[in-house]
Amino acid sequence: MKQLITADALRTAHAEGKTRIEITLPDCIVTAEARMVAERLGVEIIEVLANKPLVASSSLLGAATAAPVVEYEANLAAIRQAVLAQLPSGSVPENVIDQLVRKVAAEQATSTSAPTAAAVAAYESITLKSGIKRVTGSSVKMGLLEGAGANQIGIADVITGADGSTMAAGFMQWENSFFPWTLRYDEIDIVLDGELHIRCDGETAIAKAGDVIFIPKNSSIEFGTPSKVSFLYVAYPANWQDC
């Protein structure tokens, strides 16, 4: 049974002179009110993942544990960016966003299944009031494409229906793999690096950096590269994964 960490628990810790408390994820759940009380009282909540390094500033730890902690904190930041990217700016309170981020992190830490694009892909972005969205390409972290068999196909959706778009866009990359795919949607691929091979009906279209490929709806093809490939895709409609 999960332990609930309430605002009263934080007040008690503060009254006892404690400046920090440790909890274990995912065995404990910290309420939104508890986090706000902790911040107001100056009580630091230190979160420990089961069988994972302590979540704290790396300056407080020895060199042997600093790297894992930095990696975990970077993962938290990436998850936060992914969550924010799916929400209209200012629509959700910070404490609720914080809970969502830590819930995803805890689920990732205890999951034994292969990661998916939705669970892992993350990036930095800014959405203006007008709805215009800018994604920082260098910040994009790939998830894995489902349905590609044993192939390790990296994918990151960066524009989706959640952005109010009728189209979707994202990045894909992999090395030395070919896999079959049937598209129930229109797709345009812009190759950024390497070679993209599209095989269909006994013919192959080969695109290199700077080239553009259009794949019409209902095409049964084979995606692949004999070396490596990285490209930007644009798909219509935005819910291409559900088509």
UniProtKB/TrEMBL annotation:
<dbReference type="InterPro" id="IPR010424">
    <property type="entry name" value="EutQ"/>
</dbReference>
<protein>
    <submittedName>
        <fullName>Ethanolamine utilization protein EutQ</fullName>
    </submittedName>
</protein>
<dbReference type="InterPro" id="IPR014710">
    <property type="entry name" value="RmlC-like_jellyroll"/>
</dbReference>
<dbReference type="Pfam" id="PF06249">
    <property type="entry name" value="EutQ"/>
</dbReference>
<dbReference type="InterPro" id="IPR011051">
    <property type="entry name" value="RmlC_Cupin_sf"/>
</dbReference>
